[in-house]
Design goal:
mainly alpha, flat, 3 helices, about 0% strand
Length: about 100
């Protein structure tokens, strides 16, 4: 079976887009790392419960905020971000240590 015409042709913008995507991925990983550290420190101070998994929680928080930013821009509605932050506040309250 033959490959479709143009299948192996290089696309000039693809490499540039890949570099941009790699940069964005690195930025997200950096943010996840910083949030993870903050969550671990809060756990050590007894501010959040030990059942919180800092790495997974950080991934969820960063992904949620990135999604909210994307949707806010897409819909041109800043209330999307406000609602997302409200829901994230409710989510984080589940991990707050009871004193």
């Amino acid at each position: 079976m033959r490959a479709p015409i143009g299948w192996k042709q290089k696309k000039p913008g693809l490499r540039q887009n890949r570099k941009r995507t790699d940069g964005l991925a690195g930025d997200a990983l950096g943010r996840i790392g910083r949030v993870t550290v903050q969550l671990r420190e809060a756990q050590a101070r007894g501010e959040i419960v030990t059942t919180c998994k800092p790495e997974k929680t950080a991934q969820f928080l960063v992904a949620s905020l990135n999604g909210a930013i994307f949707l806010s821009k897409l819909t041109r509605d800043p209330d999307v971000m406000k609602r997302c932050i409200g829901e994230l506040d409710r989510y984080l309250a589940l991990y707050k240590a009871r004193s």
